């Protein structure tokens, strides 16, 4: 699966070509997005998704993608879906690792209990040997 940042960068290149993202461009896009331009809203989503000239912020990216997607802008719908897919993948990963940690913790508890049992048996054997 393509990483989200690489995918977003690809979309950035599609939208902007090789032009640099400077503050004037960002401000222009903000004005257009405030005016309801679905394309500009999607572009702002890309800016926030990859942290281009702004602090990377998935929540803000989803907000802008959603506004554009609700207007039927296909690229924004795709970007929004990709963000949700990534979130779901991360949730699955987190769920897996939580379960794995629980399994390891249970194994550690079992080992500690077994160690205590063996230490008790060893102490009994030492007492028996001292009596002889």
Defining traits:
5 helices, rod-shaped, single chain, mainly alpha, 132 residues
Number of helices: 5
Head-to-tail CA distance between termini:
70 Å
Poorly predicted runs are none
Q: How are helices and strands ordered from N to C?
A: HHHHH
Helix content: over 70%
Number of strand elements: 0
Strand content: under 5%
Which shape, going by the Cα principal axes? rod-shaped
**Radius of gyration from the alpha-carbon trace, in angstroms:** 28 Å
Structure classification: mainly alpha
Structure description:
The chain has one domain. The chain contains five helices and no strands. It has helices at about 5-15, 25-35, 40-50, 60-70, 75-130. The longest helix is centred in the C-terminal third of the chain and has 58 residues, at about 75-130. It is rod-shaped. The protein starts with a helix and ends with a helix.
Task: Give the arrangement of secondary structure elements.
Layout: H1 4-16, H2 23-34, H3 38-50, H4 58-70, H5 74-131
Helix pairs in contact: 1-3, 2-3, 3-4, 4-5
Outline:
The protein is mainly alpha-helical and 132 residues long. It is built from five helices and no strands.
């Amino acid at each position: 699966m393509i990483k989200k940042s690489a995918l977003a960068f690809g979309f950035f290149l599609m939208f902007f070509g090789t032009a640099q993202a400077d503050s004037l461009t960002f401000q222009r896009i903000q004005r257009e997005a405030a005016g309801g331009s679905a394309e500009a809203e999607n572009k702002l989503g890309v800016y926030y998704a990859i942290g281009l000239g702004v602090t990377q912020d998935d929540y803000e990216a989803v907000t802008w993608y959603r506004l554009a997607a609700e207007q039927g802008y296909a690229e924004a719908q795709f970007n929004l879906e990709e963000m949700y897919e990534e979130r779901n993948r991360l949730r699955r990963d987190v769920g897996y690792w939580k379960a794995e940690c629980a399994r390891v913790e249970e194994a550690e508890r079992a080992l500690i209990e077994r160690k205590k049992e063996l230490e008790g048996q060893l102490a009994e054997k030492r007492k028996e040997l001292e009596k002889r």
